[in-house]
Design brief:
The protein is of the alpha+beta class. It contains 13 helices and 18 strands. The strands form three sheets. Strands 5, 6, 7, 8, 9, 10, 11, 12, 13, 14 and 15 form an eleven-stranded mixed β-sheet that branches. The protein has a four-stranded antiparallel β-sheet with strand order 1-2-4-3. It is elongated. The N and C termini lie close together (about 10 Å). One of its GO terms (cellular component) is cytoplasm. Keywords: Acyltransferase, Transferase.
Length: about 425
């Protein structure tokens, strides 16, 4: 990693992250944009970023979400297919009763895919969904260009192949396949979930598949399918992937309560919000949304401390320890914060180590460094200037590394390599 702080976010550049390491980063309030990692300062930012996650095993789609899936499936199969398939492949009475009374999420998201249909007859449209490597292709870029121009109203000069590649095709998260305890294969790393309609790529979900979550990086689609609510379809399918693939949680990306365009993330429940100070998860209920409406910055752990009888709070917090075994957004614009003291230890950023904690942290002299192309790793204590410098001296090498350690936290330091050599940084 390389690193720097700026305004209301702390940034780091990464060249290689294991899925397990990035899972822990997410649970410590980090996210990535391409190969750039960033951790917002919720206490001082004008637009406070919160980390959310949804438990896919508890997800129950709303009536509107169910109707969206059913409407799209009917479009894909067509009326002629539905009638003929009912004649050729009739449901039993029990199957019909179950379908009318229950909504099986996994079954419904797959039922109109071409490989899932009973044939004959042929459906009106051939629909496929594939999980592919996050490589750049012209086919993918054409969807991106259309989405940015039509949906986001960007000018042609603002859209480029290099921008698409840097933002959505370059990831430091390594890909691998593991075998779970029940013998199933589980893919980890960065992928593109590609939706094709009659052979044409019409939507892409950019995903990080991690040990305990499906993390949504970005979702984009071609204008031709806009009327079918592709964003909603994509979110539901990602939740289904979290359940079906054994990832359990769906992380929809940072949530800004004051941003109307992000309110849709709360339409999927049950959601949990990560406390910026204690890194514990709390269920988002009406009381929590009410507090978000009232407060510029919300730490539920502080709210509970300020309310001796918990004032109606449910004890729903859970520590994010699972990471230690171990639709998307870009970093905030800090251009207006030139006069802000950006030395991390002077900012009061919640959830990071204090200067006193850093001074007493016994690993500071043993952090791993890469300083040349030999492949050999050194320790911070090997540096000539290390013992002469103070972690509190802003601008010094030692203070810069101390900032990175403080922003990451003790759980992430053992596997950290600070890279001073890699030309890509």
């Amino acid at each position: 990693m390389n690193h720097h702080s700026a305004g209301f976010s702390y940034y780091a550049k990464a060249t290689s992250l294991t899925p397990e390491y990035y899972q822990t980063l997410l649970d410590h309030y980090w996210r990535r944009s391409g190969t750039t990692l960033y951790r917002p300062d919720q206490l001082h930012a004008c637009c406070v970023h919160y980390t959310l996650r949804l438990d896919s095993t508890q997800f129950k789609p709303t009536r509107d979400q169910r109707q969206t899936i059913n409407r799209f499936n009917k479009f894909l199969t067509g009326e002629a297919y539905t009638k003929e398939a009912a004649r050729l492949h009739p449901l039993t009475r029990e199957q019909a009763r179950k379908r009318d009374s229950e909504f099986d999420l996994i079954e419904r998201v797959h039922e109109a895919e071409y490989d899932s249909l009973q044939m004959p007859p042929e459906p009106a449209h051939v629909f496929t969904v594939t999980l592919e490597h996050d490589d750049f292709t012209d086919e993918k870029y054409m969807v991106y260009e259309n989405y940015q121009r039509v949906v986001h109203k960007e000018q042609p000069g603002e859209i480029s192949r290099r921008g698409f590649q840097r933002f959505l095709c370059e990831s430091p998260v390594e890909r691998k396949t593991i075998t779970t305890a029940d013998g199933k294969e589980k893919r980890l790393g960065s992928f593109h979930q590609c939706y094709r309609l009659d052979g044409k790529l019409v939507a892409i979900g950019v995903l990080d598949l991690l040990p305990h979550c499906v993390s949504a990086v970005y979702f984009l689609y071609h204008e031709s399918i806009h009327k079918y609510a592709p964003g909603k379809l994509g979110a539901i399918r990602e939740i289904a992937l979290a359940r079906e693939g054994g990832y359990r949680y769906w992380y929809p990306g940072f949530y800004i309560h004051t941003c109307p365009k992000m309110r849709y993330k709360m339409d999927y429940t049950p959601q949990y919000i990560l406390d910026p100070e204690t890194l514990t998860w709390d269920l988002v209920d009406k009381r929590v949304t009410g507090l978000l409406d009232k407060k510029q910055y919300l730490s539920l752990s502080k709210e509970k401390l300020d309310s001796p009888k918990n004032d109606g709070f449910k004890e729903t917090a859970e520590r994010t320890t699972e990471g230690s075994e171990l639709t998307g957004e870009t970093p905030m614009n800090d251009s207006d914060d030139d006069d802000v003291d950006t030395f991390l230890f002077n900012t009061g950023m919640p959830g990071v180590m204090s200067l006193d904690e850093i001074r007493s942290f016994d690993q500071m002299d043993h952090l791993k460094l890469r300083i040349d192309g030999s492949g050999m790793l050194f320790e911070t204590g090997d540096l000539v200037a290390w013992q002469r410098q103070d972690v509190g001296a802003s601008g010094s090498l030692k203070a810069g590394i101390a900032e990175l350690v403080a922003a990451l936290g003790p759980a992430l330091v053992n596997d950290l390599v600070v890279d001073f050599w890699n030309p890509r940084l």
